[in-house]
Write a structure and sequence with these properties.
Length: 643
Amino acid sequence: MLDRLRALTQSRSTLQQPLEEEEPNSKEEQREEWDRPIEFILSLVGCSVGLGNVWRYPYIAFKNGGGAFLIPYFCVYFLIGTPLYFLELSLGQFTSRGTTAAFKMSRMFKGVGWAMAINAFLVTVYYNIIIAWCLFYFFASFRRKLPWSDCDNWWNTESCSNPDVSKNSTINYLCLSTNPINNCSLPTSPPEEYFDNYVLRRSNSLEAMGSPHWSLALCLLLAWILVAACIIQGIKSSGKVVYFTSLFPYVVIFALVIRGLTLPGAANGISFYLKPNWTKVREFDVWIAAASQVTFSLSVGFGSILGYASFNKFKSNYLRDCIIVTACDCFTSVFAGFAVFPILGFMSYKTGLPVDQVAKAGPGLAFIAYPQALSIMPGGPFWAVIFFFMLLTLGLDSQFALSDVTISGILDTFTNLRRYKTFVILGYCAVCFLLALPMCAPGGIYLFTLMNEYSSNLSVIVCAFFEFIIIAYIYGFNKFMEDIRMMLDKRPLEPYWFLTWCISGPIITLIVFFSSIIQFRAPTEGKYVFSTYANVLGWLMVSSSIIFIPGVMIYEFIKAWKATYRYENQMSIEMPHYLRMLTYASQPAKDWGPARKETRYGRYEVMNQTIENDTKPNNESIIINNENVNEAFDPELEMTSRF
């Protein structure tokens, strides 16, 4: 039906008055390109392989069936992860534009790119506080005795108990873990008190925010200085840094695996990690957890993959890069478990606690559980230094990509600022530092948790859903495959992309979204339950990115209504006004297509003439020889042939 509607819009036989449309840039603007293909691959690896692979996947796999979790994990990789990764690579390389400008393939869906950019910005703000914590622990590890190894420090409380000190403390841990009605008070470990009482200076609630602590604030400042220094020259500088930041973590993970396997109790830890619980595979929540982990791990839905691909050469073989990076990301997640659980098994052996009680996820693993194991391990300070340096490099890689999304969005939208790119980057880093500064205060951990829980998961799923819908049904699967042919000289794996982009991708992301809404539970931080106003603030953060999708859509509808009303003679009189408006709003923008002049060939060849005509006075025509290069669907094609 949509094809017939669009056929009516091309029923004119002579050159007619054009519809209103924003004018593209009168001259082509040069965009940076990767110096070497390996820099692009390493940047993708650094972007996708991050902290989530080390501190999130092993725990999620352990809690959701152990070795059996690999079944839903690999299935979701096949049905969502790899297809969405390839989609974003294709879109970025084809348009050579950042996320805010790449979704001009449909006027009314331009807001999807802005939703990605805002979401990336929110994650960037709180993500660097993790890097600040890594820097704090990294500097603290340069001593003979780790500061969190015992309870003889001013920040320790009377409830602090070192499980490795004596048999009595071990019995105390076991007693409390099996008999919670005991009158004795719950002990805390030295690493837990070090993190809460010294690093964070944790208060009791979000309301008791306090003022930023100078030592953590300096680490945050250093973190943003490192980010600014590495991205100040764009990919020319970050492309060189990734040679180290992308490869060094693998050296450390491999070293930690070897060291962990030599410790007593390591076999018990690996058994907990890999022992399959096949009944979990039948549980719906396990599949939802797999889908969330895959999208989080691959960094899809943030725009960072699309942004990196926009710096690629038009004819680069990004299909090969996609297969390499997604396989590398999947392997790293599984392999990282062998660096985590042998250490947890060793800690279980030393404390007498079961592995499931010492295992934690997220910051609890990186800054409490793992440091505790390092403190009772031979050569602990050395392993602590390389462990936190590994976390630092993983965090910086992800931060480079997230920062690039927002900065590219600013420069692609306000092109006059390109000449001041250095100042834009410095200003961006300064603003993000100031916004993150409250998280260095005693109540900052609660703000961090709030942003971490609210600002990414739902927004990513929504953006992923609209990416599938736009490519498959709005722009057209067949047209997008033809765009891919222009870059790769073939339409590779077409049945697979059809299955995933048009069927499995939209369905699964929609199911995950509604499941996340239905099963949503207000976040907590320890025993603290966030108040109503805090949860309202969290939902406002979610809305601040998603709102761009309906907001831009309404704006484009208004523009389309005015345009099709004023120039009604362009549209068939048989078509109602609202259908003319909808047809026009769903079509690509005037400047949709390859950004570089030399890559505009085939059906995009007419774009060069169109842009040249736009530079002439009183000439705004977008119709040449009764042909619009950017009709959203080819009226000559039936629905079946489009797919």
